[in-house]
What we know:
The protein contains four helices and no strands. The chain has helices at residues 26-36, 40-49, 56-61, 76-105. It is flat.
Amino acid sequence: MNEPDLSQLPYRRPPITRGIDPQRMNWLWRLICELGAIDAREVMEALHAVRVPVDLRRVKSWTVSDREASFFPITLAELERNLRSVLALRLARREAQTQLEHASDGPVAAPPASGGADAPPADPVDPAQLDW
């Protein structure tokens, strides 16, 4: 079966299948949330991190159908702000995790000196490194 080499064909834009209203971008927000595995609690946490006062009910209202009573339209500006906030939160979490991993590695302990069995330990145990 002959399959065409799609990389050699010119790119064509898909047809617009719905009216684009920048004041009602909920359908696009729902697709982004599904694709990026973004849940309402993460969005709320990200918005709080950038000092946007929003409650969980409002965040959830952006992902429900426009036929539901709890529907609230999301604007294009809100959609962009939400995405930038979630990206910043995920980046901060990733950096914090990296720093924690580097901190937990710590310096490698040197082998004990051969001072005999009665000799005191060379380095006292730091209580900050103990697992409580």
